[in-house]
Each structure stands twice: as structure tokens, then as C-alpha cells.
Amino acid sequence: MTVPKRAGRVAIVGLGTLGRSLGLALQASTPDLEIAGHDREPDASREAQRSGAVHRTHWNLISAVEGASLVILALPVAECLATLKALKGNLAPGTVVTDTAPLKQPLVRWAAAEMSDGAHYVGGHPLARPAAPDGAAFARSTYCLTPTDDSLPAAVDAVVGMVESIGAQPAFLDPAEHDGLMWTL
Questions:
Q1: Beta-carbon neighbour count of residue 153 at 10 Å?
Q2: Is the pTM value of this prediction over 0.90?
Q3: Per-residue pLDDT tens for 45-76?
Q4: N or C: which end of the chain has fewer CB within 10 A?
Q5: DSSP letters of 22-33?
């Protein structure tokens, strides 16, 4: 099984400042990329579409991720679990899921238990935290990636491709090492 390095369709779940910034960065780097979005808050969805961070939004989570080869969870750690549970059984084989949360170990455990068969999880954590939506916020910044021994290399490549396309530099860490470093900051 292969996962494309450049996804034709990306879904961003969570359209707050970070999610919109990622959408804007992806739009700038890959104009032909189709970006769908989802947020529980209608105002966030409207603002994401109005600003050009996404092409379209869906109120329904499953509709938002349908057909996406890469799903980015731009959500707090606690909301990622509920989202992974909701996505279980609703992701096509080969779909790659990543996140932006600052803790990795809980998400690695949750993803192992909740991912759809054939879908792949690769943890991510952009260290750039823009104060307002800004597609340039990731340029020359560090973007932590926390694959595990079970991560499919092609899935890791897909997330690396996304990170590099927005101008960030991937830094590979073990999930426990990442979390230990985050606690010391």
C-alpha cells in the first residue's frame, strides 16, 4: 500500500487560528490542493472559508473527511479522542491522520485503539503558534513529528511532504521524548 506524498484532498478538522493558518499555508504552497474543513462552531467555519483557508466546509465531520488522503486534527488533545472515535470506520484505507496537539503519548495510544483499518496515524506538533491566522507562520519553523515503530513509512512521508510544503522543518522525536521536552518548556 502506498500513500501519496502530495494529497489531492486534505481535510482540516478544527478551524481556529492554527487550523486556518495551516489551510492558508497549504493554499499558498499547493494552489491545486483541495482543502475541506470542519469545525463545530459555525462562525469558525464561515471565517475559514471567507479567508480562503479552505475551499469548503462541512457541518458533518464524516462528510468533511470523505475522500481526503490527509486529515489534520487541529484540535486540543482532549477533542482528538472524540474525533478519532467518530472517524473510526469512516476513513478510507490509506488515509493518513495527523494532529497538532502538544502531547503525543495519549494520542498514540488513542490512535492505536481507534483508527480505522487501513488508516494511518503520524503525530505532529507545529511549534509555531500564530496569534492570528497567518499562512506564513510556519516558514522556517520547527514542526515536530512523532512516528512510532508501527508507522507506515509512506504515511510518514505524506506528513513530511505537508510539513515541508508549508516551509517548516520536520524534527523527528519519539512520542515520550517529545512529551518530556514539552513539559520542560
A1: 10
A2: yes
A3: 999 999 999 999 999 999 999 999 999 999 99
A4: C
A5: HHHHHHHH-TT-
